[in-house]
Structure prediction request, 754 residues.
Amino acid sequence: MNYKIENTKKIIINKPLKLDCGQTIEDFPIAYETYGKLNEKKNNAILIFHALTGDQFVTGNNPITNKDGWWATAVGSGKAIDTDKYFIICANVLGGCMGSFGPKSINEKKKEPYGLSFPVITIRDMVRAQDALLEHLEIDKLLSVFGGSMGGMQLLQFCALYPEKTFSAVPIASTASHNAQQIALNELARQAIMSDPLWNKGNYYQNNKIPKNGLAVARMAAHITYMSDKGLQEKFGRKLQEKKDYEFTFDADFQIESYLRHQGKVFVERFDANSYLYISRAMDYFDLSKQFKSGLSEAFQNHKTKFLIVSFSSDWLYPTKNSKEIVIALNASGVNVAFAEIKTDRGHDSFLLDEPEFLKTIKGFLDTNFEIFKNEK
Amino acid sequence: MNYKIENTKKIIINKPLKLDCGQTIEDFPIAYETYGKLNEKKNNAILIFHALTGDQFVTGNNPITNKDGWWATAVGSGKAIDTDKYFIICANVLGGCMGSFGPKSINEKKKEPYGLSFPVITIRDMVRAQDALLEHLEIDKLLSVFGGSMGGMQLLQFCALYPEKTFSAVPIASTASHNAQQIALNELARQAIMSDPLWNKGNYYQNNKIPKNGLAVARMAAHITYMSDKGLQEKFGRKLQEKKDYEFTFDADFQIESYLRHQGKVFVERFDANSYLYISRAMDYFDLSKQFKSGLSEAFQNHKTKFLIVSFSSDWLYPTKNSKEIVIALNASGVNVAFAEIKTDRGHDSFLLDEPEFLKTIKGFLDTNFEIFKNEK
Prediction:
């Protein structure tokens, strides 16, 4: 990666954090961004949890990629999550590579990056670090939490840990636990990275020979899972890349090949290979029901948080059935829950795209809950 | 690969074969196996086309892997495709690595393996080479042709090229054309291989430092697509690999991780990385409708071949809709076609497994057609 993380807010968490692996960390940085303005009553704050390869730059310009923030479709002035109305917080996850404490952070004792000596973290560890950020920002109760994909896992974990800390919650295209196929796909990505000789057991920062090839393959694999069969077919089909017929080589003849290669190439410029390992591992370890004796419904017992669960019909990575399992558990706990499956061909990535029905749904839920929450706080 | 191809039949095709890429090859070997006995009337011959990583060792002991042949569930004495009754032929495809002419064959002019100087081949090239084998075996009309996955592509191409050469045909879990997702998955595998520095632009035979890592990742990716979400969950779920709890490392904690790593490891012992590139490329290039002005139905116009199309309900790599497209085209051509979707959770791999309903279906179709064909020939 040839970028510098300068233009981002950062706090140092001083309170020791005992990780699920047993180690304790302290005095570690969490990078974050905020958008909009916290009102006087502090009842308009929203915490957004980002996905595997996301970051704190939700909207506006991402200073690293110089592109729009990852959720500019949903968050901004006049958008579904309106920055003129709400105060939005997003933190780079623990283990990340955008300024938060992660494997590329410098171990001050050894004066070198942690690499694989960084502790293996969990979704719960990520969430606890973000709770410390909320304390720092002196926000005791959020209007809402949002999270798609791995963001939804953090959201569920946050609600389970701190039932009093948010009025409402919107997990999107997510799951309460990775199944075998989801673990398999992450393991494939990890193997692609760890098979690259330049990965060098995680020690690649000093010589700047990063495992680009492996990380690009990991990204390509993931990217295929973010789109649906039908969506890919509509967008690319068998269209050739600026040629009239097959060239009988192993160059990119098809547009889809060229597209995938491009996705791999741009990704390695912005993301750290070790972070990919750590974050994907946290996703695989996540199993909310495991934390409660009588399973998932116990995670939300007697909770007052109002939930909206959203899935996308063509999402095969986190299919609707994963969302329905959450709905069933919430219902079993007597929690107030709404559920929407958005019909679309654009697969898992739909939550990042301009999907009008989806954006209208989350806007309606959020605005309604703000009206109710305002009367309480 | 540390094996030797000795115990297999082989013919040298003397007749020049003009490939789709424009090059002409001649005096090249095709390795094959036969099972059972050709009867006097020569009306009991069946040609089986193998899939991407298959070979000519359909049943009995595979001398390379020392395991059962890849279709021992279906082919053998007393089995659905009964070797006591039928004469079964299977050839290693052109571009393969089990004795047929492929990238690891020696270029006699240069006294070194072809590597990437081997011509890029197509499914049609593979089929034409196998037709030459049939000529050599002096079989003018087959009782039937079978092929699963890429085998089904060869089968469709064979029927389109030589409508008079088979009485019946059974394409299984296949397609008449790769769509964008199918190309993407193959491209992912190719990128995994080509990203491995040991691949060395295809020149890795001499120094015996083969691109094992890349090929293993390619295999893992493919393997995930061969199983269904539900099948993986039933077999592995979140079960841990000989441990009671997470170990907070990047070793294989979950059984599915260990399983995938094993699949990658054993595969690289038997398969050539360049063959993977060439064969997967042929699959992506395959688009039967492209060969005919008015599309797929023209491929079978006025054909007398009796078809049975089989798909598996949980196969997401070559889903039922791919098979239905073939059925629709055959119907539009007025061809005799039966269609069966087998209900199973075992995904694309089902065609290789002991699936009683599937095996019963193909046995019934084959035996019935043998009775009819016997009266004709």
Notes: Chain B touches chain A through 57 residues (CB under 8 Å).
